[in-house]
Amino acid sequence: MLDFDPIDEAARQWGRHWSGVPAMHAVTSLMRAQQIVLGRLDAVLRPHGLTFARYEALVLLTFSSRGSLPLGKMGERLQVHPTSVTSIVDRLEAAGLVRRLPHPDDGRAVLAEITPAGRKLVETATAALLHADFGLGALDDAGLRELSEVLRPIRRDAGDYA
Prior knowledge:
- The longest helix is centred in the N-terminal third of the chain and has 25 residues, at 21-45.
- Helix 1 packs antiparallel against helix 2 (21-45).
- The chain has helices spanning 6-17, 21-45, 52-63, 71-78, 82-94, 116-131, 141-157; strands at residues 68-70, 98-102, 110-114.
- It has a 3-stranded antiparallel beta sheet.
- The protein has 2 domains: 1-48; 49-131, Arc Repressor Mutant, subunit A.
- It is mainly α.
């Protein structure tokens, strides 16, 4: 553990060369926080044989009305590249947590359907994530709401939603 904040030091050095110190500090802080939280989430999910990306896919299928979605729709909803969805579904299928099915209306599309084992694992993994405060235990409920609101304009500007 350092006895100084390396992002503050980077910002100090940055300011000696360029402008935009507040933006540089904010983006560096955001990216470091993302690394920390993702590391914590993956550590919580590792004993369950999941990564956070695979967990998100299972939750998405759990929330779907039929327990299945076309892989293309999963990519849109998870906001990941189609090859990433294929990889995620491959891993989940190999673990017996989802199965691929032909789309009943579109012969070119494939559905991913959550299995009973997948549903059971979602419940177990969710309990573990809740127990770990989703890696955000340093924030209380007001801080969590504030963080979500601070990030909302960035997400909206990127086209996450209208």
